[in-house]
Design brief:
With 512 residues, the chain is mostly helical. It has 24 helices and three strands. The protein starts with a helix and ends with a helix. GO terms for molecular function: transmembrane transporter activity.
Length: 512
C-alpha cells in the first residue's frame, strides 16, 4: 500500500466523514430544534430521516451515473451539496426549511456512500482492498465522533449561561459548523485521479495505465493491468445493463447476499442509536448534560473498534467478522431491552418541589405515583405539562423519576456499537465493492444502497413513534430478535472474499 493510495482513499471517503458528522449532529440538534418548532413524533422522525429518504434517490442513480461521467466528477458535486446543506440548515427559519436543507445533504451522502467504496476498490489491489475500503467506515465514525464532540462543546457553552449562544442559536451553530469539512472535501477532491478501472471501461487505456503505475508502482501495476485486460476481453458483451439482469440466474445469488446484508445493516438499529443517541441516553435518567457526554463516549468506541476492523478484515476475513459481530449485536440489544424492562418511574413530592420553571401544581396530581413503564410515565407528563414543555424538560423529568440500572443500558449500547463497528459497518461496504463484476458494480451497489437507505429511513422515521407507543424495552427487543434472525441467514449464505482480485471473485461467484 503506497502513501499516495492511502491519501486518495482517505480524501475520497471524506464524504463518509460528512455523513457521520451530519448523523451525529442531528441527535443533539433535535434536543433544541424539536421543542422550538413544537414537533410531534412524525415530524421529529421526518426531520431526522429526510436525508435518508433523498439518499435513496441518489443511491439508485449515482452508481449508474458515475459509470457514464466518472466517479470523480460526481464526488465533486457531492462535496458542493454538503456545503449547501450545512449553510441552509443553520439558517432554517421553519421546520420545512430545515428538512428540505437536510434532504439536499441526503442527496450528497447517498451518492458518497455508494461511490467512495466503489472508487477505492477500483484503485486498490487484492491484498489491501479490505483496509482501504474500510477507511470509508473509519471516516464515517470519525465524523460521528467529531459531531458528538462538537455537540458536547456547544451544549456545555450554552449550559454555562454566560455565552453568545441562546436556545434559538445553539442548534444552528451545531449544524453550521459542518460547512468547514464540506469545503475542505470539495477542494481536496480536485487532487485525486480518475478511477483506472473506469478509464478502462471507457476505452482510455493509456490514462488507466498511467494511474495504476502512479498508485502501485511499475511491477504491481502490470499485474493489475493484466487482470483488468483479461476481464475486459472475456466480458465482450458491452450492451447497457438493466436492473432486471441483477436477478437473472448468473447474478441472483450475489445480488441476494448484498440485499440481505444491506437490509440487516439498518434494521438491527444502528441509525436509531446514532441519530437519537442523546434522546436514548436521556431515557436512562442520567440527565441532559450527561447524555451529551455519553454520546462522545459512544462515538469514541465506534472509532476504536472500526480501527480494529481495519486491522483484522484482511487477516481474519469478512465472514468471521460479520458473523461474530451479529452475535454481539443481538446480545447487546437484548441486554438493553432487559434493562429498560426493569425500570420504574416515580416523581416524589420532594423532587417535584426542586424542579425549576415547571408547573408544580400540574405535576402534583402524579406525585408519589409509580409507573412500571416509560410509555405511561411520558403520557402522564405530557398531559400535565403539554408536549412542548415536556420535550424541553424530558431529560430533567426522567432523571428525577427513573429507577433503573443505567450502567447496564450503557454497556448494552456500547457493546452494540462496538460489534457493529467491526462487522456490519465496514464489512458490508467491502463486500459490496468486491462481489460484483465491473460491468454491473455501479448498478448493483446503487440498487442495494437504495434498499439500505430505505431501511435506514424507515427505522429513523418510526423510532420516535416506537419509543412513544411501544416503549424503550420493546423497541430494543425488536432489534435484538432481528439480529438473531440475521445471524442465521448470513451463516447460511455469506461467502468469503478476502485476498482475491475483483476479477477472480467474478469467476467464483457468478453463476453460483
Amino acid at each position: 500500500m503506497t502513501k499516495r493510495t492511502l491519501f486518495i482513499a482517505f480524501v475520497v471517503s471524506l464524504g463518509g466523514f460528512l455523513f457521520g458528522f451530519d448523523a451525529g449532529i442531528i441527535s443533539g440538534v433535535m434536543s433544541y430544534a424539536g421543542p422550538e418548532f413544537d414537533l410531534n413524533d412524525a415530524q421529529t422522525g421526518w426531520a431526522v430521516s429526510s436525508p435518508s429518504f433523498s439518499a435513496m434517490i441518489a443511491m439508485l442513480i449515482s452508481g449508474r451515473l458515475s459509470d457514464i461521467v466518472g466517479r470523480k466528477k460526481i464526488l465533486i458535486i457531492v462535496a458542493f451539496l454538503y456545503a449547501v446543506s450545512a449553510l441552509f440548515s443553520a439558517y432554517a427559519t421553519s421546520y420545512e426549511m430545515l428538512y428540505i436543507a437536510r434532504m439536499v445533504g441526503g442527496l450528497a451522502f447517498g451518492a458518497a456512500l455508494i461511490l467512495a467504496p466503489t472508487y477505492i476498490a477500483e484503485i486498490s489491489n487484492a491484498e489491501n482492498r479490505g483496509k482501504l475500503v474500510s477507511i470509508q467506515q473509519l471516516n464515517i465514525v470519525l465524523g460521528f465522533f467529531a459531531a458528538f464532540l462538537s455537540n458536547y462543546y456547544f451544549n456545555k457553552i450554552y449550559s454555562s449561561g454566560d455565552s453568545f449562544l441562546t436556545e434559538d442559536t445553539v442548534w444552528r451553530w451545531m449544524l453550521g459548523v459542518e460547512l468547514v469539512p464540506a469545503l475542505l472535501y470539495f477542494l481536496f477532491m480536485f487532487f485525486v485521479p480518475r478511477s483506472p478501472r473506469w478509464l478502462y471501461m471507457r476505452g482510455k487505456v493509456v490514462d488507466a495505465n498511467q494511474v495504476l503505475k502512479q498508485l502501485h508502482g511499475h511491477d504491481n501495476a502490470k499485474e493489475e493491468i493484466a487482470s483488468i485486460e483479461k476481464n475486459i476481453r472475456e466480458q465482450k458483451d458491452t450492451t447497457k445493463v438493466s436492473i432486471g439482469e441483477l436477478v437473472k440466474p448468473a447474478l441472483r445469488f450475489i445480488f441476494m447476499v448484498g440485499l440481505a446484508i444491506g437490509i440487516l445493516q439498518q434494521i438491527t438499529g444502528i441509525n436509531a442509536i446514532y441519530f437519537y443517541a442523546t434522546s436514548i441516553f436521556k431515557q436512562t435518567g442520567i440527565g441532559t448534560d450527561a447524555a451529551f457526554t455519553s454520546g462522545v463516549f459512544l462515538s469514541f468506541t465506534t472509532v476504536v473498534f472500526t480501527i480494529v476492523a481495519m486491522f483484522l478484515i484482511d487477516k481474519l476475513g469478512r465472514r468471521p467478522l460479520l458473523l461474530f459481530g451479529m452475535v454481539g449485536i443481538a446480545i447487546s440489544m437484548l441486554l438493553c431491552a432487559y434493562g429498560f424492562n426493569n425500570a420504574t418511574y416515580e416523581l416524589k413530592s420532594a423532587e417535584i418541589e426542586q424542579l425549576e420553571n415547571l408547573d408544580k401544581d400540574a405535576l402534583a396530581q402524579f406525585a408519589n405515583k409509580k409507573f412500571d413503564n416509560d410509555v405511561d410515565f411520558k403520557n402522564a407528563m405530557k398531559s400535565a405539562l403539554g408536549t412542548q414543555v415536556y420535550a424541553k424538560n424530558e431529560g430533567t423529568l426522567i432523571e428525577a423519576a427513573t429507577e433503573m440500572n443505567a450502567t447496564l443500558i450503557l454497556i448494552g449500547i456500547l457493546g452494540f456499537i462496538a460489534c457493529f463497528a467491526f462487522s456490519l459497518g465496514p464489512v458490508m461496504w467491502v463486500l459490496l465493492s468486491e462481489m460484483y463484476p465491473n460491468k454491473y458494480r455501479g448498478l448493483a451497489i446503487g440498487v442495494i444502497g437504495f434498499v439500505n437507505s430505505f431501511a435506514s429511513w424507515l427505522v429513523q422515521q418510526v423510532f420516535p413513534w416506537e419509543l412513544s407507543n411501544l416503549g424503550n424495552a420493546m423497541s430494543f427487543f425488536i432489534f435484538g430478535i432481528i439480529a438473531v434472525i440475521g445471524f442465521f441467514v448470513l451463516f447460511r449464505i455469506l461467502p468469503e472474499t478476502k485476498g482475491k482480485s475483483l476479477e477472480q471473485l467474478e469467476k467464483e461467484l457468478i453463476g453460483r
